[in-house]
Amino acid sequence: MPDTEYPGRRQYPRQKVFTFCRVVWSSPQASYQVPAMTLDVSPKGLAVLLRNPAQPIWMEATVHILKDLELRVMPVHKQPWVHRVAGTKVGFNVKQIISGERQWEAMCNGAGDAHSVVPQG
């Protein structure tokens, strides 16, 4: 029986990837650009740490990772993050890879140590 047939197993396992990113979204009142850090990635989603979210993100957003990687995402959950750095962990479904498809695949497959940085408190 393949791993995907076991209950509770992910079809696309997460990779722990810590790198700086920027989350951009707009509401009817304003536009926001918030610095963040990726926590984990998979081909279908990612989780980011927002240290001080200006507004709740419950709409489509764009995540910019490194120079060339840009994803259109939709939030699916959020929870308080109280590990080394306080903030909010937001989980996103990836709707579209706007640019940087090769970089995204490499990150999701665990290739390339250049994507990892140690989060500072």
Helices and strands: which structural class?
mainly beta
Strand content: over 45%
Major sheet, described briefly?
6 strands, antiparallel, barrel
| Helical coverage, percent range | under 10%
The assembly state of the depicted protein chains is: single chain
Mean of pLDDT: 83
Can you tell me the overall shape? globular
> What low-confidence regions span 5 or more consecutive residues with pLDDT below 50?
117-121
* H/E element order: EEEEEEEH
How are the strands ordered across the major sheet?
A: 2-3-4-7-6-5
The termini sit apart by 43 Å
SS element count, helices? 1
Could you characterize what this model shows?
- This protein is mostly beta strands.
- 7% of the residues lie in helices and 50% in strands.
- It has a six-stranded antiparallel β-barrel.
- A hairpin with a 3-residue loop joins strand 5 and strand 6.
- The longest helix has 8 residues.
- The radius of gyration is 14 Å and the shape is globular.
- The C terminus is likely disordered.
